[in-house]
Specification:
alpha+beta; 4-stranded mixed β-sheet; 304 residues; 9 strands; 3-stranded antiparallel β-sheet; binds zinc ion
């Protein structure tokens, strides 16, 4: 999506906060005691590791809302859903799975309904968003051979942590509060039986996305799972779901597909304002909207 549109840009305060987090600059003038009795550090790592889960609740809901808003036009442009299709959020979804009728494994989901896209064999494709813990920075006295190695090591470690959280979502815990306990793997098995895909969306404390959703959005192949972290034999459905979510006909590289189709639409109809061009709509002055045509580089005011 174009960042020319103001709603696609980060507001100044969250932008400054993110930059300070990324550069390991203090975001607080001093430490203070958290509700959990541990210290809330000046770099802002503590809320990602705090046993008080309330810290992540609001960010989780905000990410879910924004992810859903961004996904709808993307899926429409990629021709995976029709323009009138709406995405469902957790609160609206009642799957009534036999293993656990109360289970709501998706934060955001949609039904692929365009006949020309191979993913329409699925009855539902859902995402479950999880914010991971902050990984501690390397010790200041650690000598790294070069900055390239440093980046490679750091991102590899970040990906392993993100993969752990993705797998935790597929290795759904058993619900022992019921008699008999509900098997988490049976719930995943119900999803597979109903032709549903679950893609965990792991996001780390610096905004890095997990390998599964990176493949889903950008087509980047996920790194191999280390042998010691493979799915256990008593989790056959978790392994099957991982395979379904990472292979065709599941959507892979939605951004690439959307980009190719958008370019094709521009080539076919260069003088017309397509639905995709609306993405370029931008407010130049308050309450005044113009549509920007990237082909002619003209702006014009739509008649509303
Ligand atoms: Zn705390």
């Amino acid at each position: 999506m174009s960042r020319r549109q103001i709603s696609h840009q980060l507001p100044p305060i969250p932008f400054a906060l993110n930059m300070r987090r990324k550069l390991r600059l203090p975001i607080l003038p001093y430490e203070y005691k958290c509700q959990c009795n541990k210290m809330f550090d000046i770099y802002g790592d503590h809320p990602f590791n705090c046993p008080n889960k309330n810290h992540k609740g609001r960010p989780h809901n905000m990410i879910t809302n924004k992810f859903s808003q961004a996904l709808a036009p993307l899926l429409t442009t990629a021709n995976i859903i029709s323009p009138t299709t709406t995405l469902d959020k957790e609160i609206q979804i009642h799957l009534h799975l036999p293993a656990d009728p109360t289970a709501r494994p998706f934060d955001v989901s949609y039904k692929p309904n365009c006949d020309c896209h191979p993913s329409n064999v699925f009855s539902m494709i859902g995402y479950n968003i999880t914010i991971t813990n902050a990984t501690p920075p390397p010790p200041s006295n650690q000598v790294l051979p070069s900055s390239i190695d440093c980046i490679t090591n750091y991102t590899a470690n970040a990906d392993i942590s993100l993969q752990d959280h993705e797998r935790n979502k597929l290795n759904r815990p058993n619900n022992r509060r019921t008699t008999p306990p509900i098997s988490g793997d049976e719930v995943i098995g119900n999803l597979l039986h109903n032709q549903m895909i679950l893609t965990p969306v792991a996001i780390d404390a610096h905004g890095r996305l997990g390998p599964l959703v990176r493949q889903n959005l950008y087509g980047t192949p996920p790194p191999d799972i280390p042998p010691r972290k493979q799915f256990k034999p008593n989790r056959p459905n978790a392994k099957a779901m991982y395979d379904h979510a990472t292979n065709l006909p599941a959507p892979i590289g939605i951004f690439i597909e959307a980009d190719q189709r958008w370019k094709q639409l521009q080539a076919d109809q260069p003088q017309h304002s397509t639905a995709s061009n609306i993405l370029w709509t931008q407010p130049l002055r308050s309450n005044t909207f113009y549509i920007y045509n990237p082909t002619t580089r003209n702006r014009y005011r739509p008649r509303l």
